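Inputs:
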Amino acid sequence: MKDKLMLWLICILSALTAVPLFAILGEVLLRGYDQLSWSFFTEPTPTAYRAMKAIQAGEPIPGGIANGIVGTMIMLGMAVVFAVPIGILCGAYLAENPKRRFAKVVSYLTDMLQGTPSVIIGIITYIWVVVPMKGYSAIAGSVALFIMMLPLIIRSTEETIKILPASLKEAGLALGGNRARVMLRVQLPAAFGGIFTGVLLAISRVIGETAPLMFTALGCSFVRFAVDKPISAVPLLIWEFFNDPNLQELIWGASLFLLLFVLTLNITAKYLAKKWNQ
Amino acid sequence: MNDKIYKIILFAAALVIPIVCGGVVYALVTDAYEAFDHFGFISFLTSSEWSYTDGDEHYGALPFITGTLMTTFLALLFCIPFSLPVALFVGEYFKGTKVAAVLSTVTDLLAGIPSIIYGLWGFYTLRPIIMELDISPQGSGILTASLVLAIMIVPYAASLSAEFIKMVPNDLKEGAYSLGATRAEVIRRVVFPVAGSGIFSSFVLAVGRALGETMTVTMLIGNTNTMPDSITSTGNSMASIIANQFGEASDLRLSSLIAIGLILFLITAVINLVGKMMIKRARIS
């Protein structure tokens, strides 16, 4: 009797936990789907004045989030180009030298960096990059994203290499390969699946980050490709729309785009991990 | 490529992490120094005044430390009754089944939702409900922020706890069953004691998440710079005051915000390290 009650309680509470996911997905879908159109992805954000005019005339708000998409892609691209090789090498170091004291220190610091609130990464990048460069820029934004991605890639690389069978490495060494060759030709290719999944998850983790970009990339109302000037990003645009009553209609389209992007990356990463594990 | 160069390259890559971490601490400390020097370390922590009128600037971190502790504590409180059942569902009752896989996918996806979207949902869906229920007139406040924070940290606490619950040895449970214990008793007398330290550490890490969560709290806490007097009143957390004011601040105010950042950094670093160490211990035993 008591057992049954407990089972029911656990099932009900577990089911309730799933509710927010569907509530959030549902709300963003229902309020955002009719905003998604070709022009939403190709046009930059309208000015508050143009948006106000459109609202007064009873028309849909013109423009879209092209400036945010371009900015996100530029900053993410720069962050990935640096974070992936450095992260993989550092992960390889940790996997190769698990007993060294320095590796243990690095491992703890990686955990610490991973747990550091994103707003603090924003402050740091502001002090390191924005102040010396005398201005907000895409470079600063990508440095912030780089710092946030690095620990995630290090961890996934380290863990994937560590669970490879030891015989793999030994066979490579026995065939006369030195450690570098065995790592490059045997271990890293064998760990490719896990590392790739880790990179996808790292991207999905930082792509929605808003706080670190507020003090680094700042935002920009037109499409821009310069890396030394302020630039926009999709989450930054959502934040702008949230704060500007004239642009509030655009929130949901932008959020739907971001949410679908993040969830697709997540599901793809999970699916690939499962497939490669078999 | 010979082994020596290979080793040097790997070492150089690993060196990036201590350099970044050292740089974080160095930059925070040097830039926070002005505020600590001006107000004194202790009185900066214990002053509850935050005013930036010219000539009469006064900054203290107490309202925001209080705000962070209140939101985090409440979020932990709200998250326990949901993450424990999920952990038991995935790790004990339906271990290895399809339903369990579906539920853990759901919680994984919950963990993937960007915090700004949680904030939107809290603002446009939860806030009206709070107002409707007459809990607080303006809808936003510490309670509202904590509720959404709780949803955000459930996935972290649940998936880690489930991992430890799964590791409880079968023969222990079977031993208890053979002595006539019911499932509820087995969970209370065997699973919880054995997996207890692991479960506890997963909540410690969830707390580490909640402490620094920025956008959600900024959008829902109401953004007032005074001491919160109840759980329904508005306030600011350490992260949200930084998000709100960093862009417009300069000189002493900027330094004070960085000082708050330093305190937040230290608190989360300690909580995270303690949590990770406990997890390592729980995994070994």
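The domain at 66-277 of chain A is CATH 1.10.3720.10 (MetI-like fold). Flag for discussion at group meeting.
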